[in-house]
Amino acid sequence: MSGIIRTYKRDEDAVLHFREAWYDDEFNQFVVNHGVVGHQSRTEEADVEDGDSVESLMAAFAAQCEEDGYEEIPEAEQFWVVAQIALKTKDGTERDRYLERKAKAALTSELAWRGLGVVDRSEIADSKLNIFCLCPDVNKAVNAIKVCIRGEDLDFTKLSIAASPHGAPGEFKVKHSPKTGAGFTL
């Protein structure tokens, strides 16, 4: 079985929390990851004996989430957050493709372990590396992306970040730019 159940809930102080679960077939474990969105999560693993156990564990997890008021956030209610890194060449070089792989892996981990969403795709075009992330909280995702790019020794001075509602991908608003007042184009 593959797949992940990812759910969210706002507490009485409007703080967004998340819970997610998946089966790790490499280690034959059922994994539950949870925490406050934007903060490092806590993870618990349980050994799984057979495939039937996985189905029942996933069903039980989903039922417990529903009982506790957690639910999935539909893509349509999330945001596109694009991390854009300026490149020196129009179509990219082998070094730029390495940068793309490194940045995608780093952002995937940074966002996932903080309940901040997923890296959906990336592209190199028109002298830019664009990494598209689908996120439930724009501001926390932007902060996490900036921390991640700095922490991975990627060129922070060439990073721009913009966001738009999921249903309005043409309406990106700049959230971070190396130049004051700079626009954002894909």
Automatic annotation (TrEMBL):
It comes from the Bacteria. This is Uncharacterized protein.
